[in-house]
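[step 3/7] inverse_fold.run input=structure_tokens len=483
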């Protein structure tokens, strides 16, 4: 991961350290996509913790590294010789560094392997000319319904132990460490390993936590990932991370905010079956949630253009996700719910989105496959049932279409079907313009002329919303046209 940008971010800096499996590198379980958060602490808090709520199944599950060095137990931030800082990050990956003692440097790398497994690698370096004896224990705390749940040590064939976190909803998470075993002083909430650090020597130890509905499968998953060579996976993570834009402004906090934004954008996409050519966006992919195989229309639209600069297939898949819900009459679900109860008619934004994505991709086939359904969708908005008074100015049908709940009119609980807005006409004009551009590019002369006619009609309609006395466009009552 040495090719990644190097940072020096302390807890006071902005960061977003939620990690989730990268859909470009692993298959995502949309029904149970487990997300974790790396939490650097301050003062009396744990210096470093890896936490999740398992999609709301638990109050909090926390894994904390605890060190025993020269008879001292170290796990709080104030005990570390230097604070934990974020050094590198990428989708599914975070690297942090600190000094546990003045003589022992520490690098932690956390990695979300797939939807059900997360792990970490701790690398120690002895900076002194004196050998050091160190023990690392992974502490597990499981909070369920306001109480701490007990964990259990599981003896392993061949020696050592795994740590069972108990039932967390329908999951039975297991934790294992390289050659990990219970401490000699007992305690069922931790497993660890003794480390002999040679003078100026190095040592590396890994752990894995897997959460599955069968404890045997969870244990098998932890063993599998501990048997793997992680370096080849880290190389793929680094290669994939290079596709993200690298923005340098000279302001470290601004740079970090942008970089974490792209990291979270990449983690927001989850895979669907290979035979379904659409992207699914999980806008609530955070440590307290599981990914949802349902697109939030507003979020998907807002992120699609950013995604186009990273992965054209993602951005095109957002449009395809909307079009996959289309009914015969042109209706498209505003939240792109595949196979679920319909929501509301999508705002007229898709042709503009498709045309804007094309500016990045220059993919003619994407435009050709999208033109006909986009035309039907546009014409669905011009249908008589959406224009109650037949004046050529359709009405919004649901508050969700307006984009924000505190809208000046709908925020006062006014039914959006009872008033007409210049904004909707402007949306339709934008759609018609984009459709005309698409038709022109594809040499569809008849369609180009058809959309030109729509543009002229919509421009005339928009002009009726202009109030010369007020010097602005106004809303109006649907039936009386009073403003």
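[step 3/7] decode complete -> sequence:
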């Amino acid at each position: 991961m040495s090719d990644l940008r190097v940072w020096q971010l302390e807890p006071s800096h902005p960061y977003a350290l939620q990690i989730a499996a990268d859909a470009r590198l692993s298959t995502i379980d949309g029904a149970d996509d487990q997300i974790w958060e790396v939490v650097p602490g301050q003062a009396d808090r744990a210096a470093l913790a890896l936490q999740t709520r398992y999609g709301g199944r638990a109050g909090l599950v926390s894994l904390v590294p605890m060190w025993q060095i020269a008879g001292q137990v170290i796990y709080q931030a104030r005990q570390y010789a230097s604070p934990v800082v974020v050094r590198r990050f990428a989708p599914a990956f975070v690297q942090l560094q600190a000094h546990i003692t003045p003589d022992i440097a520490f690098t932690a790398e956390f990695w979300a392997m797939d939807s059900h497994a997360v792990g970490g690698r701790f690398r120690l370096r002895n900076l002194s000319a004196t050998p050091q004896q160190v023990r690392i224990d992974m502490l597990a705390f499981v909070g369920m319904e306001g109480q701490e749940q007990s964990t259990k040590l599981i003896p392993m064939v061949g020696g050592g132990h795994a740590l069972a976190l108990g039932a967390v909803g329908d999951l039975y998470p297991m934790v294992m460490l390289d050659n990990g075993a219970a401490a000699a002083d007992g305690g069922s909430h931790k497993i660890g390993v003794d480390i002999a650090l040679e003078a100026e020597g190095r040592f590396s130890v890994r752990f894995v936590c897997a959460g599955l509905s069968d404890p045997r499968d969870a244990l098998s998953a932890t063993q599998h990932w501990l048997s793997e060579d992680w370096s080849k996976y880290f190389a793929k993570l680094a290669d994939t991370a290079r596709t993200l834009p690298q923005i340098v402004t000279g302001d470290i906090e601004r740079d970090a905010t942008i970089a974490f934004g792209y990291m979270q954008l990449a983690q927001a996409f989850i895979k669907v079956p290979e035979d379904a050519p659409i992207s699914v966006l999980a806008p609530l992919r955070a440590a307290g949630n599981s990914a949802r195989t349902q697109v939030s229309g507003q979020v998907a639209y807002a992120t699609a253009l950013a995604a186009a600069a990273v992965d054209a297939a993602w951005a095109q898949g957002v449009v395809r996700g909307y079009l996959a819900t289309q009914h015969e009459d042109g209706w498209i679900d505003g939240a792109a719910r595949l196979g679920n109860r319909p929501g509301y008619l999508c705002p007229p934004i898709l042709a503009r989105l498709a045309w804007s994505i094309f500016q990045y991709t220059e993919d003619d086939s994407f435009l050709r496959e999208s033109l006909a359904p986009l035309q039907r969708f546009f014409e669905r908005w011009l249908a008589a049932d959406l224009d109650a008074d037949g004046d050529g100015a359709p009405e919004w049908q649901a508050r969700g279409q307006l984009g924000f709940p505190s809208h000046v009119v709908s925020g006062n609980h006014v039914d959006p079907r009872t008033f007409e807005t210049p904004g909707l006409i402007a949306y339709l004009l934008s759609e018609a313009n984009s459709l005309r551009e698409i038709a022109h590019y594809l040499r569809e002369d008849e369609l180009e002329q058809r959309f030109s006619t729509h543009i002229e009609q919509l421009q005339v309609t928009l002009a009726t919303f202009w109030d010369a006395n007020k010097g602005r466009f106004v809303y109006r009552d649907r039936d009386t046209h009073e403003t």
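[step 4/7] annotate
The chain has two domains: 18-241, 294-477.
Residues 18-241 form a domain with the Beta-galactosidase; Chain A, domain 5 fold (CATH 2.70.98.10).
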